[in-house]
């Protein structure tokens, strides 16, 4: 498995990031443990989670994903074989939100406890917090790095101007800088990243670990008509958002390239992302070993220039 650096952090990661939001939600404890074992075995050892995962599920309150990973780490003893990214900032209860130094200090200790580790490889701002000065947030992160509790920091859901400003603050104040950005990006959702954010990340040498890599499952080819909305809990939203002329063009291009390589739209979608300039390791999840096998296969799929042109043209914005 080839490795790529997360920005200028010195941390080397594989070509895909595994989305840990499924742990403690759509993957039970036993399944989660088997997925984590298989990820390490296949060198897909970069796991992205967040303190808030998966608070949206009935009966959950947040912290379930980190807790599951922590229990697996304790059982497996494989902490040195995985790279763990988590996030702070989303609502975790009364007074538990945002990027104030006080809350960051509290939240990181909570995450470390749930993960049963003494350090986090990549600690990310889950949302921009305009109520807290950037210098205060970055100083808090800088202190965590100096204390050895965090190796590098990243940003998620930042607009281009705010990301640029944060990087300037770090440089001016001599503070740790964001080494990564986590934006929404896939064959369908291109404009939001490509219009402004891509230039910022490339100019400053940031790593990009994009989420919704398969557009909530649309780019797997599973949803092709209104009748398909019953295939998942979010099927109605997927049908409403993506089944339009542009969406159908993208599916047709995926089918064409997949047939050429005798593979699936899922693998082609991910291979396109892996090949994109400036993209470090797209985030993608699985809830079974069979699905995981497809993700592993995607890292081995080499698209040629014609394939990429077909996909670029069909998904142009």
Automatic annotation (TrEMBL):
InterPro entries tied to this protein: AKR, AKR_Detox_Biosynth, NAD(P)_OxRdtase_dom_sf, NADP_OxRdtase_dom
A cellular component annotation (GO) from this entry: cytosol
Keywords: Oxidoreductase
Keyword Magnesium: no
Molecular functions per Gene Ontology: oxidoreductase activity
The NADP-dependent oxidoreductase domain, residue ranges: 16-314
A Pfam family this chain is assigned to: Aldo_ket_red
Gene3D superfamilies for the chain: NADP-dependent oxidoreductase domain
Stored PANTHER family: NADH-SPECIFIC METHYLGLYOXAL REDUCTASE-RELATED (PTHR43364), OXIDOREDUCTASE-RELATED (PTHR43364:SF6)
Listed name of the protein: Aldo/keto reductase
């Amino acid at each position: 498995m080839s490795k790529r650096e997360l920005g200028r952090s010195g941390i080397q990661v594989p070509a895909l990031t595994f989305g840990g939001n499924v742990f403690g939600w759509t993957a039970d404890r036993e399944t989660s443990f088997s997925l984590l074992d298989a990820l390490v075995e296949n060198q897909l050892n970069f796991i992205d989670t967040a303190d808030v995962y998966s608070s949206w599920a009935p009966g959950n309150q947040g912290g379930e994903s980190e807790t599951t990973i922590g229990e697996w780490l304790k059982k497996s003893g494989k902490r040195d074989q995985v790279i763990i990214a988590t996030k702070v900032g989303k609502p975790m209860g009364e007074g538990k939100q945002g990027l104030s130094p006080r809350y960051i200090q509290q939240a990181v200790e909570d995450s470390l406890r749930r993960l049963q580790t003494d350090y986090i490889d990549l600690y990310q701002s889950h949302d921009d917090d305009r109520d807290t000065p950037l210098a205060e947030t970055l100083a808090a992160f800088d202190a965590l790095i100096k204390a050895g509790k965090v190796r590098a920091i990243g940003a998620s859901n930042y607009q281009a101007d705010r990301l640029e400003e944060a990087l300037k603050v770090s440089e001016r104040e001599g503070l740790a800088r964001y080494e990564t950005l986590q934006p929404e990006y896939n064959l369908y959702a291109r404009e939001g990243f490509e219009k402004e954010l891509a230039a910022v990340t490339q100019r400053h040498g940031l790593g990009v670990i994009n989420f919704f890599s398969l557009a909530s499952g649309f780019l797997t080819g599973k949803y092709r008509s209104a009748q398909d909305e019953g295939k998942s809990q979010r099927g109605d939203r997927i049908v409403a958002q993506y089944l339009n002329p542009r969406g159908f063009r993208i599916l047709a291009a995926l089918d064409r390239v997949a047939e050429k390589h005798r593979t699936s739209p899922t693998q082609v979608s991910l291979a396109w992302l892996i090949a994109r300039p400036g993209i470090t390791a797209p985030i993608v999840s699985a809830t079974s070993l069979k699905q995981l096998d497809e993700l592993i296969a995607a890292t081995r799929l080499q698209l040629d220039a014609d394939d990429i042109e077909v996909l670029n043209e069909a998904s142009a914005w």
